[in-house]
Amino acid sequence: TLSKVQVRMPEEVEELEQQRRMEAERLAQIVVTVNDYLAQRDAENNRPLFEFLG
């Protein structure tokens, strides 16, 4: 029904787009840690996947 249709004003859409971009930038950050224990653990946990992918 038409009563469920939502209409957003342009400034709201722009704000949402800005928030989406900021969130995407935050998620795009990569953290690298050099830790032998974690590297070994992750290698063992992911071994089936790595073998499957070749």
Automatic annotation (TrEMBL):
Domain spans labelled SecA DEAD-like N-terminal: 30-54
GO CC entries: membrane
Gene Ontology MF term list: ATP binding
GO biological process assignments: protein import
Pfam families: SecA_DEAD (PF07517)
InterPro entries in alphabetical order: P-loop_NTPase, SecA_DEAD
Coiled-coil residues: none
Classification via Gene3D superfamilies: P-loop containing nucleotide triphosphate hydrolases (3.40.50.300)
Listed name of the protein: SecA
Organism listed in the record: Escherichia coli
Source taxonomy: Bacteria, Pseudomonadati, Pseudomonadota, Gammaproteobacteria, Enterobacterales
